[in-house]
Amino acid sequence: AEKPTTKRDAMKIYYPSSEHSNSIELSHDDIKCLEPESLLSSTIMNFYIMYLQGPMSSISTQRGKYHIFNTYFFKKLEALKSKVDKPSYFLNLRRWWKGIDIFQKPYILFPVHADTHWSLVIICMPAKEDQSGPIILHLDSLKFHNSRLIFSVVERFLKQEWNYLKENGSLAECPIRETVWKKLPHKIEKKPIAVPQQENEFDCGLFVLYYMQRFIEEAPERLHKKDLSMFGKTWFQPEEASALRKKMKTLLHQLFEEADPSNDSTSEQTACQLLLEAKPANNVMELATSEHPLEVSSAEITSQKPLEGTSTRPTSFEHPLECS
């Protein structure tokens, strides 16, 4: 017989707060994907991406400017290839980065999810004095996703945005050397990156989040080709990424406990509220997440249905990035 639902099981919290128009709804069921040998869901991935920007995070005071898209963004880019009315679709897609000059950002990051596996894309924009163009990096803890196909999707995105800005003259100030900007579609480089590898079949999401965290902590203001030496198979120990499972589980249990109205220690302004609602004084990072993005001043989060996984390593990757 099924266990009866308790008040604890039915309890929900909203991150960063219930007042936030795009808050993530979290329940105790969402924590189940943090059990050993489980794959992370989109809900938990997006929760931690947003947590990284909070005042308790080690990267909250970084000076570099980043644009982080959520776990649903790459699928939107994939769909661009199959749409009949591509110009119209792309105009709608641009709402994801409304008010943001993509080419002004030093770094753009977003996860890729396909065939129950997670990997990470980082787009690095060149400095004004650099002779090279943007560099697309692909970080994969199993070398499982097809980097070539992922690169084609991301490159198409950059080219279409470049065409749009070129035709509409809406780029306030070109952040890239003029000679490079004029030939930008031919200047985009793609590099699969050697990174520490997971030692099991179920930690891919943890590695994506840890790649993101470590990169933001260590990346220079603008990445030059020589800076790619920061990566490598010995960049960090695999167990450091795997340890995120316990950290996130502990954090979420703490948030639920502090938000529980029956908890005697709950006050009008608990540590939970401080963690959930406080913002760093110099919040230079941004997170675009909404299925239908809204214009907001800080991070956007949506509580869409998570992508659930199993603990079995995928065995096939036929046409992994093709759209029907």
TrEMBL record:
Residues 299-315 have a biased composition (Polar residues). One of its GO terms (biological process) is proteolysis. InterPro entries: Papain-like_cys_pep_sf, Peptidase_C48_C. Gene3D superfamilies: 1.10.418.20, Ubiquitin-related. The keyword Hydrolase applies. Residues 291-324 are annotated as: Disordered. Residues 24-215 form the Ubiquitin-like protease family profile domain. Keywords: Hydrolase, Protease, Thiol protease. One of its GO terms (molecular function) is cysteine-type peptidase activity. Belongs to the peptidase C48 family. This is Ubiquitin-like protease family profile domain-containing protein. It comes from Aegilops tauschii subsp. strangulata. The lineage of its organism: Eukaryota, Viridiplantae, Streptophyta, Embryophyta, Tracheophyta.
